[in-house]
Amino acid sequence: MSDCVFCGIVAGTTEADVVHADDALVAFLDQRPVFKGHVLLVPRTHVVTLDELPAGLRDPFLATAQRLCRAVVEGLGAQGSFVAVNNTVSQSVPHLHLHVVPRTKGDGLRGFFWPRTKYAAGERAAYAERLRVALEDDRPSDR
């Protein structure tokens, strides 16, 4: 879909800090993270909501989400994560995306209030690299 920013990231025509890419899925850092290291997971296929995700992508989508949850802990030192998918309402980009937000006790996130932060120059790339390393260390064949 030519006007979808996430399709542009998938196609490589829109810049993003990609932390994972395979034949079906791409994960990259959110441009306006709740906390640094906030990752978005999208299918390469343009679908708008979770109910449109093809059956053959359900298991890979969830398995990759699990790996991203481990990566924010192992790679960023988070204590856990917040995982969410918006369907239409509050979906800023109409392309299915799953949020994996690193969490630590006392980080200030309350309920569904999502404050946003910014990366300093060069910092986003460093966070992306840390997540790539953690994902490399957590390959599916290792599980």
Can you summarize this structure?
Residues 5-110 form the HIT domain. A motif (Histidine triad motif) lies at residues 95-99. The chain is of the alpha+beta class and 143 residues long.
Q: Quick one: overall form?
A: globular
Number of strands: 5
Which stretches of 5+ consecutive residues score pLDDT under 50? none
* Beta-strand content bin: 15-25%
State the order of secondary-structure elements, H for helix, E for strand: HEEEHEEH
- The strand line-up of the biggest sheet is 1-2-3-5-4
Number of helices: 3
Alpha-carbon Rg, integer: 14 Å
N- to C-terminal separation?
35 Å
Overall pLDDT level: 92
Search tags:
143 residues; alpha+beta; five-stranded antiparallel β-sheet; 3 helices; 18% strand; catalytic activity; Histidine_triad_HIT; Histidine_triad_CS
Description:
The chain starts with a helix and ends in a 7-residue tail after the last helix. With 143 residues, it is of the alpha+beta class. A hairpin with a 3-residue loop joins strand 1 (18-21) and strand 2. It has helices at residues 5-11, 55-76, 123-136; strands spanning 18-21, 25-29, 39-43, 80-85, 98-103. A five-stranded antiparallel sheet has the order 1-2-3-5-4, sandwiched between helices. The model has no long low-confidence stretch (mean pLDDT 92). This is Histidine triad (HIT) family protein.
